[in-house]
Amino acid sequence: MDSRQLRYFIAVYEQRNLSRAADQVNVAQSALSHHISNLEAEFATPLFERKSRGMEPTAAGERLYEHARIILRAMAEAETEVREGARVIAGEISIGMANSGVKAIGVELMRTVLTKYPKLKLSLTESLSGATLMHLMVSNVDLALVYNPPSEKELITEPVLEEEMFLVGIPKLVGKGKAPIRFEELSRMPLILLRYGLGLSSRALLDDPVLLKRLEGGAILHANSITGMTGALVEGLGCTIATKLFAREELAAGRLIARKVIEPKLTRTLYLCRLRNRPMTYAMEEMRRLMLAFIAEQVRSGGWQAELVG
After folding, report:
1. Mean pLDDT confidence for 131-138
2. 247 and 114 share a domain?
3. What keywords appear on the UniProt entry (predicted)?
């Protein structure tokens, strides 16, 4: 098995058709078919089911595709690293961020890459925290800003900041004043909670799993959409637990009110995460440095109401 065979395999997997795959990699269809057959012989298992309408990956084919993408990407990164050296930040890097991260530092990160690192191709993915973690676990992103990630041996996690959570909603629901509200009273509110990723729990919402379980049990609705959540809050369908950064625009416009939660105070922690089996590249090191610097700047200036940790 070599890199050429893997590239051919990926083309067939993604196109699901030998003819289109052959056009994509610019080889004869017969040669492409031969390479796929050799791979199947090497693994002693079929990688595709040959059907009248194309090629359908088997379970083994699905597994190989994930590995092949990682292998080819690592090879490309290694080539760039050796050729360019540490003096030039080049190649490709993908960063995953929860919504708060993009709001706070996304634009500044993109501006810096475009102006200072012309040889670096940045891909920035915004998603709910749980989905961001999933992107990292399958190597769709290289670095990720995630709230309260699980303890996994595959992950290297670095705590960055701790945020205070507030009760957020329209004045009619949460009260016109901004006086603190006790957790016991809060738990009886008509809460709408973000799931922070399809199929995942809301662990990104709070550091305390016991309090989180109580909130989840009494929630009237769960959402996987920032836009849907914001719309529901403004319309008065319910209230939520969130940071001030999450609802910054609506709070500034007076459409929503944020009340501090007390007895106990509610917090969550943001982590910078990467995979343990992915070696740090020069680009990853520089992006890590930039993200931490931009986050610290936002916290110190008051743009991100949080406390730095770590």
Report:
1. 88
2. no
3. Activator, DNA-binding, Transcription, Transcription regulation
Given the DSSP bridges, would you call strands 166-169 and 240-242 parallel, antiparallel or unpaired?
Answer: antiparallel
pLDDT mean over 137-152: 90
Mean pLDDT over each residue of the chain, to the nearest integer: 88
What does the pLDDT look like over 61-74, one tens digit per residue?
Answer: 999 998 898 888 87
Domain boundary among 42, 60, 79: 79
> Cβ neighbours of residue 162 under 8 Å, at least 6 residues apart?
207, 267, 268, 269, 270, 306, 307, 309
pLDDT in tens, 105-127: 999 999 999 999 998 999 999 98
State whether 104 and 239 are in the same domain. Answer: no
pTM, full prediction:
0.71
